[in-house]
Amino acid sequence: MRRLPPLAAVRVFEAASRHGNFTRAAEELGMTQAAVSYQMKLLEERLGAPLFARSGRGIVLTDLGRRIAPQVTGAFDAMGEAFAAVHAETESVISITAPRTLATNWLASRLGSFQLARPDLAVRLHVGDEMIDLLAGEADVALRGAPGPLPGHSCHFLMRMPITPLANPAFLAEHPPIRTPKDLLELPRLTYRDDWWDLWFAAALGEAPDTSQAAGIRFDSQILDGNAAIAGHGVAILSPPMWQAALDSGQLVQPLPQVAQYRNAFWLMYAEGKRNQPKVRAFRDWLLEEVRTSLRDDPWGALVPPER
Predict the structure, then answer these.
(1) What gap in Å lies between CA 152 and CA 162, rounded to an integer?
(2) What is the DSSP annotation of 57-99?
(3) Tens of pLDDT along 114-130?
(4) Distance (Å) of CA 145 to CA 61, 78, 128, 243, 272
(5) pLDDT band at 86; cut points 50, 70, 90
(6) How far apart are CA 42 and CA 165, in angstroms?
(7) CA dist 255 to 11, 171, 247, 258, Å?
(8) What residues does 54 pair with on adjacent strands?
(9) What are the pLDDT digits (tens) for 272-305?
(10) Domains of the chain: which residue ranges?
(11) Considering only CA atoms, which of 59, 82, 80 is closest in space to residue 13?
(12) Which of 41, 68, 129, 188 is such that its CA lies 20 to 30 A from the CA of 285?
């Protein structure tokens, strides 16, 4: 274990040795001259030898002081460089974490515009549904699905999670027409035991019917459901804002107008202590505007904040 004298006293010694004057050292450190003298007394008592000697109205380093002053200054310079490097890296890189569907289907294709707006920032995107500890600094910002803001975090509402059945038009053309929600019970539905189906049927019919079916494909992610629907394997229950590109290209269509809202919404979150960081403010402003632009006239009610 290192046996170091009090760092506050060492800091005073380093400043006084550079200036050769306690008054100028006090001004640099924002201390009184009496406080500087007190810290030097503590340090000399700890070492058992004087570091400065009086010379007329000023002070000069003793032999011991002259021997250690360059090493102490070098140590402070090295620490300053280390912290400056960390600060520069911290300010030049923004780390983002987002769940799979949002990151893959919505965020990734848009991050290029943020990079163009802020070419000085490198972007690191972590994709995963697990919760990242923002308070421990594991990421700068998170896009997360949650019922509401999390305590201890700065949170900004992004969008709701509207859900509705989507399917490939070729698939629909090969099956009986869908005129009512109950007609969907006669068609192959992807991941038919997903609770999103129960939620949507309850909203569309006023009650949740028996949504079981004899057989079908079951996936564990919305990305797989959506891609299977695009391939024509069935009707998927999806959140349309996550599939805007497929809807715009005609790969997916919405056969019925009914939409339900999932209990969670997407939020931008970051630790309270990061709220004034320029890179976090820049990403927040860009993201909030990007969400509004992407939803256009908001046909699914995604921009309506959830009741709290």
Answers:
(1) 27
(2) TEEEE-HHHHHHHHHHHHHHHHHHHHHHHHHHHHHHEEEEEE-
(3) 999 999 999 999 999 88
(4) 62, 43, 12, 17, 19
(5) low
(6) 75
(7) 72, 11, 12, 9
(8) 59
(9) 989 899 999 999 999 999 999 999 899 999 999 9
(10) 7-88, 92-156+264-295, 162-262
(11) 59
(12) 129
Is 52 in contact with 12 (CB distance < 8 Å)?
no
Return the C-alpha torsion angle 300, 301, 305, 308, nearest 10. -90
Collapse the DSSP code of 269 into the 3-class scheme (helix H, G, I; strand E, B; otherwise coil) and give the result.
Answer: strand
The rounded Cα 244 to chain-centroid distance in angstroms is: 23
Dist. CA 266–CA 128, nearest whole Å: 14
Using only C-alpha atoms, the chain has a radius of gyration, in whole angstroms, of 31
Residue 74: phi and psi, rounded to 5, are -60, -40
Amino acid in the structure at residue 297: D
- Name the token pair of 172: 């629909």
Domain 162-262 class, CATH top level: alpha beta
What angle separates helix 63-92 from helix 7-19, to the nearest 10 degrees?
Answer: 110
CATH 3.40.190.10 is held by the domain 92-156+264-295 = yes
Amino acid at 139: A
Domain 7-88 has CATH 3.90.226.10: no
Q: Which residue has the tokens 């294709």?
A: 109
Pair 139, 96: CB distance under 8 Å: yes
